[in-house]
Amino acid sequence: MAKIVSVKEAAAKITSGSSVMIGGFMTCxxxxxxxxxxxxxxxxxxxxxxxxxxxQGDGIGMxxxxxxxxxxxxxxxxxxxxxxxxxIEGTISVxxxxxxxxxxxxxxxxxxxxxxxxxxxxxxxVAEGKQHITLDxxxxxxxxxxxxxxxxxxxxxxxxxxxxxxxxxxxxxxPIMAMAAETVIVEVEEIVEVGEIxxxxxxxxxxxxxxxxxxxxxxx
Amino acid sequence: MAKIVSVKEAAAKITSGSSVMIGGFMTCxxxxxxxxxxxxxxxxxxxxxxxxxxxQGDGIGMxxxxxxxxxxxxxxxxxxxxxxxxxIEGTISVxxxxxxxxxxxxxxxxxxxxxxxxxxxxxxxVAEGKQHITLDxxxxxxxxxxxxxxxxxxxxxxxxxxxxxxxxxxxxxxPIMAMAAETVIVEVEEIVEVGEIxxxxxxxxxxxxxxxxxxxxxxx
Amino acid sequence: xxxxxxxxLIAYRIAQELKDxxxxxxxxxxxxxxxxxxxxxxxxxLQSENGFIGLGPPPAKGEEDPEIVNAGGQPVTILPGGAFFxxxxxxxxxxxxxxxxxxxxxxxxxxxxxxxxxxxxGKMVPGMGGAMDLVVGAKKVIVATLHxxxxxxxxxxxxxxLPLTAANQVDLVVTDMGVFQVNNGSMIxxxxxPEFSVEQIRxxxxxxxxxxxxxxxxxxxx
Amino acid sequence: xxxxxxxxLIAYRIAQELKDxxxxxxxxxxxxxxxxxxxxxxxxxLQSENGFIGLGPPPAKGEEDPEIVNAGGQPVTILPGGAFFxxxxxxxxxxxxxxxxxxxxxxxxxxxxxxxxxxxxGKMVPGMGGAMDLVVGAKKVIVATLHxxxxxxxxxxxxxxLPLTAANQVDLVVTDMGVFQVNNGSMIxxxxxPEFSVEQIRxxxxxxxxxxxxxxxxxxxx
Lengths: 220, 220, 222, 222
Fold this sequence. Notes:
- Chain A has helices at about 5-10, 30-40, 60-65, 80-90, 100-110, 175; strands at about 5, 20, 45-50, 70-75, 95, 115-120, 130-135, 140-145, 150-155, 155-160, 165, 180-190, 190, 210-215.
- Chain A has about 220 residues and is of the alpha/beta class.
- Chain A has a single domain, classed as Glutaconate Coenzyme A-transferase.
- An eight-stranded parallel beta sheet of chain A has the order 1-14-12-9-2-3-4-5.
- In chain A, a hairpin with a 4-residue loop joins strand 10 and strand 11 (about 165).
- The radius of gyration of chain A is 17 Å and the shape is globular.
- The mean pLDDT of chain A is about 95.
- In chain C, a hairpin with a 3-residue loop joins strand 2 (about 45-50) and strand 3 (about 50-55).
- In chain C, about 15% of the residues lie in helices and about 25% in strands.
- Chain C has about 220 residues and is α/β, with parallel strands linked by helices.
- Chain C has a single domain (about 5-35, about 90-215), classed as Glutaconate Coenzyme A-transferase (3-Layer(aba) Sandwich), CATH 3.40.1080.10.
- In chain C, helix 2 runs parallel beside helix 3 (about 130-135).
- The interface between B and D is medium-sized, with 20 and 25 residues.
- Strand 6 of chain A pairs antiparallel with strand 6 of chain B.
């Protein structure tokens, strides 16, 4: 059963040195209120797993600006030049992972699988150091699961138990990350009573969610 | 773009010797109208991939009674004694696969992955002949993808393009099978105009669906 | 003890293992009885591996919804706050360790935590269904079984002879004679049915038995 | 030809490759222009790898929905019959071969169908985003690029020098000079921009060039 907390209480749970998955695609579907509050706590040495680092000064970019991230696993950093700059300076180590492989590795972690075979990345730098397995004449890379201490996700609506609905293209990585972290904190626009969400419309079942934060606005 | 056809036209597409995935869990979510019509065509030598074979004389059980199935990949046949009988007589070969592995193998086929590592089945007869891979001290079986020539699935509602919504526990294997077959035929209770289904509620996007059949009733 | 009382004893005892907030999968048959004994104030979410959480009691006669069935194909209901999902997600939940407790029956269970529950070669091969994933994936695996077969043989074996459902996964075995903790080669008797002596239990148990120093009596349901 | 006309020429020509019912993913930049030239009567479904199909034109000023963005993070719309999904499903669609055509830009593309599009070591490392999955997964991979770099070097290389996005996956290359089919070690010129001679194109192309016996002129968009 999820617990409704303030954004301050939620952000205080994340300790320095933690691994943190953060939902969203270039700030769309990113729990911006949580990230903003997290920066205020002065937390540092985070490993962040996310599709991208937003843009400079917004979304996950706020954590980059605050030097809170030492290791980043992402598919794209081009939209936030600051991330590239800190990578070159050596203050952030960046592991670039193809987007499909990244989300599948997170799913794998949440789904209790030990890995998967993908054709993506064969013959590229992504393949370096990875086990290659050939089946029926096709070569695949063995990719391993990703898990994290925390997932910070954004949903549209939660009921008081923690059942979640995402909206439009803000869904993206959020429901997958909700399955792969020890502690899941969701920022929502609206909290409704249990029973108000049609069981066919639930996108993340409540038991995945530990804490619910009511956000103020849509942060697109 | 899916095409709306009669159940007769749809059933006629499946030729003897084909591999056919059939949705449902003990007839709940099985396209019973399609299966009934398929039996009438006199098709044979089918490889059926399904969770189970329904009950004697209903659901996939109709195909078993008709001796239309020579090879079966399923997780459970206990609810249809006829399947067990034909297995012992040697008229059906049965490959039993743990339910989670079965659905994941189908997903794998639809998702373009070459396989996955699962802890399920290690140390059991399911592991026999399979590649074992140990990562971080945990041993996994390498399971390979499943695809099929046809998927016969059941949905609640389709729009005229083929976007699908499933209802309640009749969802089960249906959306996963829709991704893993060359030709996908869906039996629905209702066909609505394009635009009537909220894009957030679509469970199978239209391009997966080739043919839509309007069924008469809920066959539970 | 009548058969029904023995089953209720087992189900009642297992219900005491459940904690507030647990996600629980109950197998078909005896494990289903556990529902009836969940202590007041404890909020349990039942998972049905065919694709939902929030499994509720059977519907009233005539109010069955053919699209809401449990993993045995029987009509059930869904409680407020429940959620439906597809089979891939259902088993991602199961295998991913998001089910806190799974309760299932056994043909045999042994002192190494091995479980055999899905086939008798040459006789009965119903298939494993979701059992292999459940036993491997759930955080805690509880076996609910009568202590002996109809012919009086111990179901608590030194080593399983039948094909396994999973190796080394069972945590706790609850029978009509007692509560047994699997201990890598032996079973520790934690609680016993007051109707039986330790000697009687030992005689009915093939697995090497240890007796807990805190051995106590099982509570008999009202 | 003005830069804009050259881009439109490429986009127009690629649009002619699309067939009724195709699911198409268009990369950021030049490939996005393809939308504008889809022939009437051809129903194309655009896939946006961040999680939907039915990508429509940009909204009117002031009508942007921050929750409907394309893979470049720009506000777009969704057409009737569209559908949203999560990123895992989006890439299951892409990797699973359910996208008929992907159109994307290139830093370099070579005669073996290798593509380099995501990094220049020591200079620019934006990341591959979804490109590696798209190029491996889509049934047909079309590269849309100006024929040469700003400094006049051929982008159609004998062998890519930059880190690859994927090996041996490109089917067709459309530039402002012509349409090239990748042919395992050479590129076959299928159509040419009538403004250029075959010799001019050969001089601007590092990849070994073959000339189709059915060579024809590219159609210039109105």
